Structure formats: structure tokens, C-alpha cells
UniProtKB/TrEMBL annotation:
It is an enzyme of class 1 (oxidoreductase). The keyword Thylakoid does not apply. It catalyses: (R)-pantoate + NADP(+) = 2-dehydropantoate + NADPH + H(+). This is 2-dehydropantoate 2-reductase.
């Protein structure tokens, strides 16, 4: 069996990258966090995670540049997809001959970007089904869930996939290695497309508010079914009752704020193309009518425009 990576860089140390990196560091892994806004706070106070009614702390190795981090065995990418242009600058100083690239980003197209630039043989992807928010510099709140689905890009799982999965599992992250990474990406979009999108389109409603409104609840389900239809046309079969499952599990999230809504409220760039645009384009090219997804995509383009 392949050995787990000995050195790990977290590129994109927001809520997602900080949480999973902190879990690995707590288990004793050599994790190096690339940070900007939280750099001084984490250097001073470490990373704090609040979950299950408790708070725990890791000191964390925080760096202000990739040059300071240097080459590592595994780069975990948690950047918002709106910052993908920065990868050209951020990735090269972290590479040695066998460095692996694991993207935990939302939506479609991210593995392709990495593969085209640095070789498909390096690329893995992960899907994080987790409710997280960064509530203060260096402080992450975990509200629920937390499963990581891990897979190879364009290949069946390998020994290295299992080794990385075991590394996350040993750190307390419920991890599953999946046969088809892109199918899992579509499964996550079944939730992300309606809840992230409608939370913005309705002016900032939380998940419980979206579900409590009968009309919006119906739109959630309709968008889920369109997403499932697009996935199926592209060879990624998802049963229709998966929509029911996703809606039911969302009730347990309470007043959760989807990450795209938080970005929108704070005036940050929203991942419109990777979460809504690319799925619509791929589904449309496969001949699937996606009127609700197209309408939501066009609306979000307008609502998230920067002056």
C-alpha cells in the first residue's frame, strides 16, 4: 500500500481548508497553511475549531507565501473557484516530481484545469458534504455533517487514493473512496445548485427559511430534478429519490447559511460559473432542457455583478 503524504500544503485556508487541515494537523500530520487575512491571528493563537459543543485548538503552521512553504507531497486546494487564475502562481513552488494535487473545490471543471496545466496523473478530487463557517480570524465553526468523498480524476481508485483516504479517516473525517469522481460532483450539485442559488435569489434566506416557503421548496425540488436529469444524460446516473433524501437532510441543518450566500452578502465573488454555469452548459450540450437552472444562472450573473 502507498504511504500517506508526509507533507501537506493547504492552499485556500478558508473555512473548508482550515477545518480539514486542522483535523490532519491535530492527528500529527505536517500541514502547512497558506494564509492571508488570518495569517497573524493563526500565528499568534493557532486554529480553533468549534464542533459538537466543544472547542479544540491546533497551533498550525501558517505561511504568507508558497515560497516559504516549499515543495510538499500533497497540495489540498480549498480556494474559491473564482480565484482559479491564481493557481498558475501558487502551485509551481509547491511541486516536486511526485506531488499530488487534491481539489476540494465546488462545481465542475476544477480537475480539468489542474490536469491540463500540471498533468492528469497528479490530480485527485474530493467532495466535502459539511456545514462550516469561518466566524472569526482563525476560528471555524462546524455545524454538522463532514463526510469527504475522495476519488481519482479520470481513473479508478489507486493505492494512493486509499492511503490518502485512510489519512483523513484516521484524523476523524468520515471518508469514502469513490469509483467515479465526476458522478460524485454531480451528486453534490444536486444540493448546491438550489440551496446556494436560491439563498441569494431570495435576498439572503437561510436553508430553513427556503424550505419553510412552499413555493421556494417546490423550486428546490424542481432544480434538483433538473440537475439529476443533466447528470443522467452525461452518464452519471442519480436516482430521482436522491432529491427527497437531500431535502430531508437539509431540515436538520436549521438556519444554515450556504457559503455562496455568505460570499454574496460580504461583497465577495460568487462561484457562479463552476456551480451553475458549467453544469448548465454541459447539460444543455447533452440535449437536456434546463429552464429553471438557466433562469437561476442568468439571475445570479446579474445579482453578483461587481460595479
Amino acid at each position: 500500500m502507498s504511504a500517506a503524504p508526509k507533507t501537506i500544503a493547504i492552499v485556500g485556508s478558508g473555512a473548508l481548508g482550515s477545518y480539514y487541515g486542522a483535523k490532519l494537523a491535530r492527528q500529527g500530520a505536517d500541514v502547512r497553511f497558506l494564509m492571508r487575512a488570518d495569517l497573524e491571528a493563526v500565528r499568534r493563537d493557532g486554529l480553533k475549531v468549534r464542533e459538537k459543543g466543544e472547542e479544540w485548538h491546533v497551533q498550525g503552521q501558517a505561511f504568507g507565501s508558497v515560497a516559504e512553504i516549499g515543495p510538499v507531497d500533497l497540495v489540498v486546494i480549498g480556494l474559491k473557484t473564482t480565484a482559479n487564475a491564481d493557481l498558475e502562481r501558487l502551485i509551481p513552488p509547491l511541486l516536486h516530481e511526485k506531488t499530488l494535487l487534491l481539489t476540494l473545490q465546488n462545481g465542475l471543471g476544477n480537475e480539468e484545469i489542474l490536469a491540463q496545466r500540471w498533468g492528469a496523473e497528479r490530480v485527485l478530487g474530493g467532495l466535502c458534504f459539511v456545514c462550516l463557517n469561518r466566524v472569526a480570524p482563525g476560528v471555524i465553526e462546524h455545524y454538522g455533517h463532514g463526510t469527504l468523498s475522495l476519488g481519482e480524476f479520470g481513473r479508478a481508485p489507486m493505492e494512493r487514493t486509499q492511503a490518502i483516504g485512510a489519512m483523513f479517516s484516521n484524523a476523524g473525517v468520515e471518508t469514502q473512496v469513490v469509483e467515479n469522481l465526476i458522478t460524485e460532483r454531480w451528486r453534490k450539485l444536486v444540493w448546491n445548485i438550489p440551496f446556494n442559488g436560491l439563498s441569494i435569489a431570495t435576498g439572503g434566506r437561510t436553508c430553513d427559511q427556503l424550505l419553510a416557503d412552499e413555493g421556494v421548496n417546490a423550486q428546490v425540488r424542481a432544480l434538483m430534478l433538473e440537475t439529476i436529469a443533466a447528470a443522467g444524460a452525461l452518464g452519471h446516473a442519480i436516482p430521482q429519490n436522491f432529491a427527497d433524501y437531500q431535502i430531508e437532510r437539509t431540515y436538520s441543518m436549521g438556519a444554515y447559511k450556504p457559503s455562496s450566500m455568505i460570499d454574496w452578502q460580504l461583497g465577495r465573488a460568487v462561484e457562479v460559473e463552476s456551480i451553475w454555469g458549467e453544469p448548465w452548459r454541459q447539460g444543455n450540450a447533452a440535449g437536456v432542457a434546463l429552464p429553471r437552472l438557466e433562469l437561476l444562472y442568468r439571475l445570479l450573473q446579474q445579482l453578483t455583478q461587481r460595479s
